[in-house]
Amino acid sequence: xxxxxxxxxxxxxxxxxxxxxxxxxxxxxxxxxxxxxxxxxxxxxxxxxxxxxxxxxxxxxxxxxxxxxxxxxxxxxxxxxxxxxxxxxxxxxxxxxxxxxxxxxxxxxxxxxxxxxxxxxxxxxxxxxxxxxxxxxxxxxxxxxxxxxxxxxxxxxxxxxxxxxxxxxxxxxxxxxxxxxxxxxxxxxxxxxxxxxxxxxxxxxxxxxxxxxxxxxxxxxxxxxxxxxxxxxxxxxxxxxxxxxxxxxxxxxxxxxxxxxxxxxxxxxxxxxxxxxxxxxxxxxxxxxxxxxxxxxxxxxxxxxxxxxxxxxxxxxxxxxxxxxxxxxxxxxxxxxxxxxxxxxxxxxxxxxxxxxxxxxxxxxxxxxxxxxxxxxxxxxxxxxxxxxxxxxxxxxxxxxxxxxxxxxxxxxxxxxxxxxxxxxxxxxxxxxxxxxxxxxxxxxxxxxxxxxxxxxxxxxxxxxxxxxxxxxxxxxxxxxxxxxxxxxxxxxxxxxxxxxxxxxxxxxxxxxxxxxxxxxxxxxxxxxxxxxxxxxxxxxxxxxxxxxxxxxxxxxxxxxxxxxxxxxxxxxxxxxxxxxxxxxxxxxxxxxxxxxxxxxxxxxxxx
Length: 608
Known about the structure:
Layout: E1 2-4, E2 10-13, E3 16-19, H1 24-34, E4 40-41, H2 42-50, H3 58-75, E5 83-86, E6 89-92, H4 100-113, H5 117-128, H6 142-147, H7 149-169, H8 173-186, H9 191-203, H10 207-225, H11 231-242, E7 256-257, H12 308-319, E8 328-332, H13 338-349, E9 357-361, H14 372-378, E10 388-395, H15 398-401, E11 411-417, H16 422-428, E12 431-435, H17 440-451, H18 453-458, H19 460-469, H20 474-486, H21 492-500, H22 517-526, H23 530-542, E13 548-549, H24 559-567, E14 572-573, E15 579-580, H25 583-594
Parallel strand pairs: 8-11, 8-12, 9-10, 10-11
Antiparallel strand pairs: 1-2, 2-3, 4-6, 5-6, 7-9, 13-15, 14-15
Helix pairs in contact: 1-2, 1-3, 4-5, 5-7, 7-8, 7-9, 8-9, 9-10, 9-11, 10-11, 12-13, 17-19, 17-20, 19-21, 23-25
């Protein structure tokens, strides 16, 4: 027997499956399966089963639901102890043979580890084949549909994006066309699917349809959001208009050439150059033997504000002669703006690197790190055009980075990481810039640059309150600003009051769940060892009303443990000053300790 969660929740035996009817026991089962292997707190299960209207006797009623599930299990020969009653809640332990979600995730990881593209594509198709409809379709819980279904759907769409990238890179454009067409139509908010469809159309000789798709995407973005397409789609349009051979560029290669203007030569494999318009876009084209190097101009980060001193220091470190001595490391807490600073500094320093600028995320979509060999394979090799700048984003360790650092003659790397990477600097030199949260003035400046000076000036006190609620984290401020921009009639004070009612869960975007504050915090917390994670959650509970951490705890935490938490960005300051837990992180940790982690994508009671 096995449970099927990726579609209609059901119990399957071979080719036969019993679909469960929407009910409170079905909601309970879904909540336990989604968090398979973890202890799911009683409070969370009550919310999942009864949403916002639990009965007074909810805990007793929950036990009745468990008994009803066990009776259902008995009908199908499923062991009585499949649902374990443990201190604080319940747990179900599932493996790849008993739960399709576990098998799906293992197959996706296997695809990452596969050596050849054909195997990766086959494994991903097998993983996607486990989905048989919208997730939780027969589960009535609003909480699970709001908090869990979008996260699970995101995992599926990420796998589908990767599969289509692999097939396009293999030249299987006709074979993948139906997949990307369906994905682009059902998920118009994901530009990557639109890009894949446009590329597939163009490379199968349908240039007119490809350009029509580009126009449709641009019109929709302008009409619905008042924005232009992303840089990738703009480059794709330029390449199609020029008649370039897109087969020469490995789709989804991982390293993204940062730039605007002409199609960047440095994004192509060594020896490849832009070619004259082919008679058929699908036909391979021989590139000229050599072309003049084309420097890349890195686009600035939109509405970048503050960090004046840090930005100048990073820029000097990248362009100075001593930059050949090692990487430039930008470290700090999750959501503090490390990537934005690195990319903006790369924009300002771009002219010093004729070989181009490349950005590579060092983690997978699920937050797991790329190993060094995989990351190295995703970076294009040097092409002799000159020194280049690598932006290596979200590094997890010095061991991951060392094989990726360019030789001094090849260029320099700017690295972002939540850790200080002292070991890397000790062996390779370089400099470290540790970022804190923005100052109140910098937060105000960021709100002005994103929301507009007039709107902020109309509610100055509310704007200051909003910045305080956001903890002066750039990520939080930009999410709040996005809510205000998409709701022109929403007052800043009303927005602040709505956020304050459920921090930090409401610091999220409905169309980008992976960019929410809880998701970013949770991804960072998962990287800690279980012991460090428990220490941090304990500190957050014990110091709910105090700023310091460690010294006043019921059982003092050793300094070396506090140092590790500080290095990971979870606590601030340190000797000779006391350690402190940032208020936003403390609120998140206290909420997380009370219930399993979730990835909110907006609430049903959002203002405006």
